[in-house]
């Protein structure tokens, strides 16, 4: 693919070698295009990148033929890459549009550049502002449509075809299991501790970068990133969208990151190499694998699990299940509050259905007090039920989601759901201004661990903060007399 077309698409691309004969039906590209990303490589492994710079029209024709023959598996994989509700018609349209870009790059480049110029022509109102707003260094383009499901479908299609062709037969990065000498359980000081949590963050858009800026200024003890680097978890995307935003934090904040479905499209090679890059920094970095437990004395455990490497939204691997069972049991024996983190969800707001992950996790739920996840693009806090602990979706860290996707533009707090919502982020991204009212608000949350004077006074303080650093909801959690963790107080901020 021509370098100028890549520039027009606005997508970073790595220099990735292609193994000839990966797919017998296709010819490997005759040359490897150079990327235009000038970021440091951060030690990232690009050997399995789903690199759109390697895609050619024949790759699209091959996939379109497969789509005609058996559409269901192709559509299911495409939904994992960019949208769970993607229709077959939307997929076909995106593939056709992307192929036309490649076949007619000379005419596509001016068209794409004109679209970019149009996005830049609309700026923010003069009275717009918030703490940390820096339009000179970090301008906001409200009409930009990058990463939006339909509007940016052609680039999602390019990333999808790259993953299906140039990288389809390469095995996944070797998985890292815990061992007796490295149990993936890390003992932390028993003290008041500040954590920041976010998910679906890695896309380099202005609101995502402002979220990172706010977190850097908050200087938490731990940053917990629940996964997803767009489009396909490539080394260039890690180097452009994630690593630069976190790098200056690594000397003072322990960063723990889960792998999710997007990282798996590049077979998790960039993910694991970025983990190694952080670990080489030394203290306070501790992460060694894609699952972990941070243990704070006898008060708290923060447990991250792997729900994508062995299948999307699955937790069936026997060794992982045994590890989690032991960690939860030890936490209960100590009297810890167990907080679970996963890349994927047990349910979705606006549906009464549970997911496959919920079925896999059901035996563990009595040992879990609070569960955070990403992947689904909205923000909500849900009360406990007979079957579930207090739960929270924080998949609003960067993805440009629409409020209508989960009925957040209507039927607020009344849509079907297995749990009662205590807070739903209903505001639009530019709430208070007549700009893109269909887009949902992006943000992150903080979690303060307060060990108190014992189990009776132990507290969690949870705050949801949007990309403009506005506090949206605060809650205090503690144990009830029956021993279950509950939201004791909660209030939405004006």
Q: Would you give an account of this structure?
A:
- The protein folds into two domains: 3-164, no CATH class; 185-492, Metallo-dependent phosphatases (Purple Acid Phosphatase, chain A, domain 2), CATH 3.60.21.10.
- The N and C termini lie far apart (49 Å).
- The model is unreliable at 15-38 (pLDDT under 50).
- It has helices at residues 3-9, 57-69, 71-81, 88-103, 105-121, 153-164, 206-218, 235-246, 261-264, 269-279, 318-334, 356-361, and strands spanning 185-188, 193-198, 222-225, 254-257, 292-296, 300-304, 337-342, 370-373, 379-382, 390-394, 421-424, 443-450, 459-466, 471-479, 485-492.
- The protein is of the alpha/beta class and 494 residues long.
- It contains twelve helices and 15 strands.
- The strands form two sheets. It has an eight-stranded mixed beta sheet, covered by helices on one side. Strands 4-3-2-12-13-14-15 form a seven-stranded mixed beta sheet.
- 28% of the residues lie in helices and 17% in strands.
Short description:
The chain is of the alpha/beta class and about 500 residues long. The chain is about 30% helix and about 15% strand.
